[in-house]
UniProtKB/TrEMBL annotation:
Residues 2-294 form the YjeF C-terminal domain. PANTHER family: ATP-DEPENDENT (S)-NAD(P)H-HYDRATE DEHYDRATASE, ATP-DEPENDENT (S)-NAD(P)H-HYDRATE DEHYDRATASE FAMILY MEMBER. NCBIfam families: yjeF_cterm (TIGR00196). Its EC number is 4.2.1.136. It is an enzyme of class 4 (lyase). This is ADP-dependent (S)-NAD(P)H-hydrate dehydratase. HAMAP family: NADHX_dehydratase (MF_01965). It catalyses: (6S)-NADHX + ADP = AMP + phosphate + NADH + H(+); (6S)-NADPHX + ADP = AMP + phosphate + NADPH + H(+). GO terms for biological process: metabolite repair; nicotinamide nucleotide metabolic process.
Amino acid sequence: MTVSSPPLLLPSRQSADHKGTFGRVLLVGGSRGMAGSIALSSIAALHAGSGLVAAAVPDRVLETVAGYHPAIMTTALPCLDGHFADEAWPELRDWVSRQDAIGVGPGMGTGEGSTTIVSELLRQRKTPLVIDADALNIIARQEFFDDESYARGDSDAPVVLTPHPGELGRLTGVSAKDEHAQLDAAQQLAARLRITIVVKGGPTRVVDGCAGEQSAGVYVNATGNPGMGTAGCGDVLTGVITSLLGQGLSGWDAARLGVWIHGRAGDAAAAGISQAGMTAWHLAQTLAGVADEMVESSQTAPSV
Ligand SMILES: NC(=O)C1=CN([C@@H]2O[C@H](COP(=O)(O)OP(=O)(O)OC[C@H]3O[C@@H](n4cnc5c(N)ncnc54)[C@H](OP(=O)(O)O)[C@@H]3O)[C@@H](O)[C@H]2O)[C@@H](O)CC1
Ligand SMILES: Nc1ncnc2c1ncn2[C@@H]1O[C@H](COP(=O)(O)OP(=O)(O)O)[C@@H](O)[C@H]1O
Ligand SMILES: [Mg+2]
């Protein structure tokens, strides 16, 4: 099987490098019944090369999330019926500026406490953000993006949205059935807000509005397969792109390299397991095995 080349490469790792070199990132989400989503995002961030990964979750699911991987740190936030309570944001606020990147949304639900977290994370402009899943649904429901004040300026940290066509339909009002119209709508939204948008699917496309009108065009990803149409694969991508932002990449670079390595790991899982039988858990594991294909000099010949 021929493997396409990555759109860019991370710098090679040096002997003096340490955890801090590879970024400290925080994944915010999870709820009772959807603890796995934020765990998949957190594990994916580690397997994409982050130095330090923490998950900020409702108190009720902390032990569940912590139990998935000993290297993931966890922070319990106030909880109501297994979801973020209104008091969650005041406790999360002090963590934000200490992160190199934050991913928000997987499994978080769309309640009051989650809505406040999303609104406040959108307001801050210093920490790079990946916005996915229920955080996108909250933005759509609250019509946050109708307000131009959320647009990013030249000195603001990057923001990357990662909607699947259902979420993109809620955000833009353009039906998931109309692929071309959805891509146009994503390009307009990206240019208006000066953000990067990953339009997930088969294939996944990336559009970027950070250069203002001179949009960088459309990146069409060449890796991935229908075996990735299984619960949690998007949560894995959230962790990957959060990790790459935390390693210092721009939104455009983190999104393109993120979808490339995510699909590459999906292809490795399909080859190693099967398309029908692979799960997001397998994807998160095979990601660890192919991660060096994103790195200069240690670029190894693809194994499959
Ligand atoms: N283990 C866990 O904890 C997991 C937790 N998860 C968490 O669940 C939350 C809800 O997220 P979600 O994506 O599951 O539900 P939802 O937003 O209703 O979208 C699904 C609908 O959207 C559409 N659609 C999707 N793709 C499409 C396409 N390519 N092309 C066309 N249409 C497409 C399609 O709509 P339909 O066609 O069925 O009307 C589909 O039914 C979220 O927070 C997430 O993180 C999950 O990650 C799973 C694992
Ligand atoms: N047919 C396909 N070909 C390539 N990638 C796919 C295909 N179907 C789904 N994917 C990928 O799997 C992921 C699914 O994301 P999402 O629907 O958000 O999953 P979840 O929310 O369950 O984690 C996306 O990255 C998408 O690009
Ligand atoms: Mg998803």
